[in-house]
Amino acid sequence: MIKITEKNGFTLIEIAMVMIIAGIIISVITTTLPSLIQSGKIKKTRAILEKMDYSLQGYILSSGRCPCPDTDGDGEENRVDNGTPADPGDDTCSSYTGTLPYLTLGISSGKDVWHNPVKYGVYEDLIKTTSSDFCDILGSIISFYGSNAYTSTKLYATDSANNSSNQAYVIISGGQKDKDGANGFFDGKNGTAPGVQFEISNKIANTDYDDLGKSVSFSYFNGKNCTGVGMRQLY
């Protein structure tokens, strides 16, 4: 007598259900994973900018002046001492916007998580100070802008409502890519070169802007270094 052995297997309906579930899982992963990766990179870039900001503050506290930007890509500030290296009062910068002079600050890299150089801009007068006159010059700047509009020939930032104000310095990452289609990874006003206008924006994650950055006000510096109270602007 022949014994018939039953074989267990999947029915077509079961296979179809597995394929549907697998498709849903793959769809969720492919939809959410890029945004999770991007969110992680944004968080890491903000941490990088924070580290750069601390390094800038340390340099300023020890030297009594802001560094000039790096304009030739060697990681060092491009400062012109005009023949008096011991006296920063007559110093100038090759340009007041450029990339972060990371070697001058003593850090290992001046790039963001996307491996692009971080842009740095500085208010002209603050590269000329010393530890002894820093607070006096800073106080004069604050007093001047207390009764005058912003100066468009020196570093200033503009917000999305088109309000402008001069800043001590800015550091900017261009973000993931060229969001505004202007053929550079910096978007909006941050993409102008070697312009002294930058953008304080609430447009992060908009279709035409993904830059990340910090803008440090005169009041923050005055508060932290001269009076003990201050405020730093983030954007």
Protein model, in words:
There is one protein chain. The protein has 235 residues and is α+β, with helices and mostly antiparallel strands. The protein has one domain (12-234). It contains 4 helices and 10 strands. A 5-stranded antiparallel sheet has the order 3-4-7-9-10. A 3-stranded mixed sheet has the order 6-5-8, with no helix packed on it. A hairpin with a 5-residue loop joins strand 5 and strand 6 (164-166). Helix 3 packs across helix 4 (218-227). It is elongated and about 90 Å long. Residues 228-235 have low confidence and may be disordered.
How would the blueprint of this fold be written?
Elements: H1 12-63, E1 79-80, E2 92-93, E3 97-99, H2 102-105, E4 119-122, H3 134-147, E5 156-158, E6 164-166, E7 169-173, E8 197-199, E9 212-216, H4 218-227, E10 233-234
Parallel strand pairs: 5-8
Antiparallel strand pairs: 1-2, 3-4, 4-7, 5-6, 7-9, 9-10
Helix pairs in contact: 3-4
Number of helices: 4
**How are the strands of the biggest sheet laid out side by side?**
3-4-7-9-10
The run of helices and strands is HEEEHEHEEEEEHE
Largest sheet: 5 strands, antiparallel
Shape, principal axes of CA atoms? elongated
Number of strands: 10
Multimer state: single chain
- In percent terms, what proportion of residues is strand? 5-15%
How many separate domains make up the residues? 1
SS class: alpha+beta
Approximate helicity band: 25-40%
Low-confidence stretches: 228-235
